[in-house]
Amino acid sequence: MTAEATPSLVEVTGGPAPAGPSARGRKARARAAYPRYVAGKLGGAAVSLLAVLVTSFLLFRLIPGDPVKYMTGGRQVSAEQLANYRKEFGLDLPLWEQFTDYCGKALTGDLGTSYQFRAPVIDKITEALPNTLLLTVTAFVLYTALGIFLGTRSAWRHGGPSDRVNTGLALTLYSIPSFWLGLLLIIVFSVGMGPVPGLFPTGGMESGGEEGFAYVLDVAHHLVLPVVTLVAVEYGQTLLVTRSALLDEMGSDYLTTARAKGLRDDLVRRRHAVPNALLPTVTLIFINLGRTVAGVILVETVFSWPGLGGLFYQALSVPDLPLVQGLFFVFAAAVIVMNTLADLIYPLLDPRVGR
Q1: CB atoms within 10 A of CB 123
Q2: pTM, whole model, 2 decimals?
Q3: Count of Cβ atoms closer than 10 Å to residue 301 Cβ
């Protein structure tokens, strides 16, 4: 028998013959693929943010109304005074010069000066941001936990009465406009209707004059109806995605094996089915966080909540172009950043992604 006819025997003398790509090689390629994947996602996010910057400038130039006339407060002013106002805020420059000036300053963190507040836009955003985060993060935690809990219960008992009730209620509430539900809650629980007395404030964030723990309770009291509105509208999507993902997992062989080993149904669900089914839900969680920050405008306006949404509505009615542009950029950036974070985390949960 020649060496050419028995290459495997010849290779054995120098060590085992490679039968395919080694585990070490696969891990090395995976480690090399992830940085490329991250770079691609970050590059896409940067392009998206640049597109938002351009859109925020051009879109709000189409809004009817003269911000200079608003700044005069309806007083009779001369053409020279109007010209001075336009020169002060750069509105006398050609559109392309306004655009290049806006982009150049925005890249350094300068979003301009508000027409109505005569203050830097970034200061007004920083002032209102904590109030928005208080509302959105509270609602986000509650509707995420509620959606995951009810979604897993519905999937595990799919087809039963509780599943039909949960799914039907989630679809109904998810289709209701948030501003309409907010107004309805104000009528019933703030103003009072029939035997139901007015239990909660009609709007605002505080009653004023409270300090210490009494102030915390006062803010929490004002927070109830806006949070209930957001939770009611948003939890349905998390429930439906969790339910669908868990239903896909329930027919898997590893669950049958776990049951065959004598594990209780509750243990099989918590330790085996739910962790694998939560992968799509994790992506949705990050997307929802950014979307909730951007979509809180109507709820804050209805409840007169002093956050970014109320500030955006106030700026839009002028129109206060620098403030509107800055807020639009913040809202869009929140969605883009959360989507990017979801993309970056997903390969860590499922190694098949990003290869």
Answers
A1: 13
A2: 0.77
A3: 19
Neighbouring CB atoms inside 10 A of 3's CB total 8
- Residues near 205 by beta carbon (within 8 Å), at least 6 away in sequence: 131, 219, 222, 223, 305, 306
d(Cα 93, Cα 96) in Å, to the nearest integer? 8
For 265, 313, 342, the CA distances from 284, given in Å and listed in that order, are 27, 27, 8
Torsion of CA 248, 340, 296, 233, to 10 degrees: 0
Smallest CA-to-CA distance from 17 within 28, 5, 7 is with: 7
Cα separation, 141 vs 57, in Å, equals: 34
pLDDT digits (tens, 9 = 90+) for 317-341: 777 888 888 888 888 888 888 888 8
Which pLDDT value is given to residue 325?
86
Give CA torsion, residues 332, 335, 341, 346, to 10 deg.
Answer: -140
- Could you count the other beta carbons within 10 Å of the beta carbon of residue 157? 13
Find, among 202, 204, 207, the residue nearest to 189 by Cα: 202
The number of residues making up the chain comes to 355
The burial class, CB within 10 Å (0-12 / 13-18 / 19+), for 135 is: buried
The set of residues, in sequence order, having a beta carbon less than 8 Å from that of 45 and lying 6+ positions away, is 336, 337, 339, 340
In sequence order, what are the residues at sequence separation of 6 or more whose Cβ sits closer than 8 angstroms to the Cβ of residue 154? Answer: 162, 163, 166, 167, 239, 243
Candidates 90, 109, 104; CA nearest to 54 is 104
Q: Which of 48-57, 178-187, 342-351 has the lowest mean pLDDT?
A: 342-351
Cβ neighbour number for residue 8 with a 10 Å cutoff: 9
The pLDDT score that the predictor gives to residue 134 is 92
Nearest in space to 128 (alpha carbons), one of 330, 339, 335: 330
> Closest Cα to residue 32, out of 257, 355, 316?
355
